[in-house]
Amino acid sequence: MSDKNYLSTYAKSFSWAGFFLPKKIYFKCSNLYDFCRTIDNIADDEGEIEIKRNNFSDFKNKFNNQDFRDPVIKNMWSIIEEYGISRKIVNDLFDGVESDLKNKVQINSKKELFIYSYRVAGTVGLMMAKILNVKDKNSLKSAIDLGIAMQLTNISRDIVEDSKNNRFYISNNFETIKETLKTADLFYESCFSSIKNIPIGFRFSILVARRVYRKIGQNILNKKSIENYNNSGKIYVTNIGKIIQTLLSFVDLLRLSLIKDKDHLRYKEHQLINEEIDLNERL
Length: 283
Fold this sequence. Notes:
Layout: H1 3-10, H2 12-18, H3 23-44, H4 49-64, H5 71-83, H6 87-98, E1 105-106, H7 110-131, H8 137-157, H9 159-164, E2 167-168, H10 174-192, H11 200-221, H12 226-231, H13 239-258, H14 267-274, H15 279-282
Parallel strand pairs: 1-2
Helix pairs in contact: 1-2, 1-3, 2-11, 3-5, 3-6, 3-7, 6-7, 7-8, 7-14, 8-10, 8-11, 10-11, 11-13
């Protein structure tokens, strides 16, 4: 499967937003997503945990040894070298996915939830920001925030599927889902003002991705109860919904031009992550 098919097949919201990027940058983002998806697929495939652990270890070793016979690894190393991405960020991603390779995954605190969300998604936001030539430190922190917000949205959407795989990131009740999405909203808000520090040619795409993904959370809340949620299947944004969110992103673009830069808003949450992972080393 080609990089573009990976992105369009598994990440329709990202693929939609990626339409507004220059083709070269979209291709780089596709290669990054291809790498991340390859790791995820190892963890999410059906089969015995030990087999998945061996497959994961094999891919990680090939990556560390720069085995360029695998085009996914070759393309990822090209991104790392071109954009000066710290290996620590990539290792954080590996650590996050590896933590899912257990017979049972149980997260018991907000700190654990934030650290997990940083590892599997905040890292991706940070690497994406590097590809988009973001230099400002607060903006790089905000890229982590957008990744965390999207992961909290994913977790809120995928509770039924995750529980079938013995993964319990949050409790399966509507109050916890609402609380998780409320936390996600704080991260979505935190990243907004820093988007103005992204080069102008890339800005609109990030606004669209932010809006479309946030809409998933709003659609979840519209279910009103755990019974409706459980019976709804996979919750997503329709194409008409994506068009509406894209149009609203033009309003966001105007808002961005009128607001001043703000200090990073999610200091306390980042401090919890920093107790285990030094984010400043990653920036």
